[in-house]
Amino acid sequence: MSSSDLKFISRPTSTLKGTVRVAGDKSISHRSIMLGSLAEGTTKVSGFLEGEDALSTLAAFRAMGVEITDPVNGQLEIKGVGLNGLKQPDAPLDMGNSGTSMRLLTGLLSGQKFDSSLIGDESLSKRPMSRVAAPLSLMGGQINTASEGRPPLQIKGGKYLVGIEYPMPMASAQVKSCILLAGLYAEGETAVIEPAPTRDHTERMLRAFGYEVKTEDARISLRSGGKLIACELDIPADISSATFFMVAACIAEDADLLLEHVGVNPTRDGVITILKLMGADLVLENERMVGGEPVADIRVRSSKLKGIQIPEDQVPLAIDEFPALFIAAACAEGTTVLTGAEELRVKESDRIQVMADGLKVLGIKHKVNPDGIEIQGGQMNGGQIDSHGDHRIAMSFSVAGIRAKKPIEILDCKNVATSFPNFVELANVVGMSIETSND
Ligand code: S3P
Hints:
The protein contains 13 helices and 23 strands. It is α+β, with helices and mostly antiparallel strands. Helix 7 packs parallel to helix 11, helix 9 (about 320-330) packs parallel to helix 10 (about 350-360) and helix 9 packs parallel to helix 11 (about 390-400). Shikimate-3-phosphate binds near residues 172, 173, 199 and 320.
């Protein structure tokens, strides 16, 4: 896929008011299709993210013979085929822009009787896959990658997998989930040891489907031989998408936003911790459990932010939120320092460099380090930013437009549809001023 012509033009505004429910959680939406497909019985899902990434996962399972209804207002039904009921797809499975689809499916497909292959778009084709291919080969799987461990991936079926205990070299929920999904098909126990806690949606959802998963400190394990029983899933709004509105409300002069039904799983709530440390006026209301996941309404008002040293233990808990947090840092008084975040360099883009390039255009002083960045708050100018087709970069600079002196024009915004298809619409409803253009 080549870079898109879709541009956003974000203009300065000061008043943000209203109540919004942002799009469904992307991580949980992927897993609902995967586990619903492998379950016995019909799984009913609500709150599903109808974004391109989750739809890539949905299309892959349909291609493997699973009947899934078209999502309507976030609702769909999956007729599970059981752990051994998937069929060989006729063609390579196209994961589009979605790293989660590719990495989790690589684990799952390693345990199937049939061969398969996975392809992706230009950005996904540059992302590292050895992090999943290596532990899967220790289990007896066979995954052939293109050069330097990149996609496309050829996954050999009919391999005899055995459980391993794998100390993960990086804090990655995708690697953890990949190994656990392969573990459903491996002899004996499969365990991963996390260097730091990462999102635990796979573990929670497996349990919701009646599958036993043990979490003992940093060690997460399961045994093969069980089965998944269909259930009902209510997917909360994505805290990663809500982040753009949290930062927007913090930096706008006159803001009071209520973000409804947001997933606040403690393995995802680093953004709340970090924004509060920066002085955000942010309150969780109506905290409750929904289908095994903690959910809250989040009220955010205009805040006087200050620069901080971001605690390293928060990095994996806020890994997708840094582009937006960099904009918060640009609007804060003083310097914000991020360290221990080299993983940001292998996301949909190199998020440290691409954000730094954009901040430079806006006149924000910063220093790039191999594992992070130092950002000195200041007045942002307008200008033209290249998002490099990274959805979260595009949305972050759209939010920056609130406080810039002049409009910010953001290029290559098509991929916002991968995680948050109605971002512009919702942003404008609460008072942001974002225009789209295909010129
Ligand atoms: C995800 C895990 C994270 C995150 C990604 C979604 C998941 O990646 O960045 O957007 O759903 O498991 P890593 O696990 O590679 O850090």
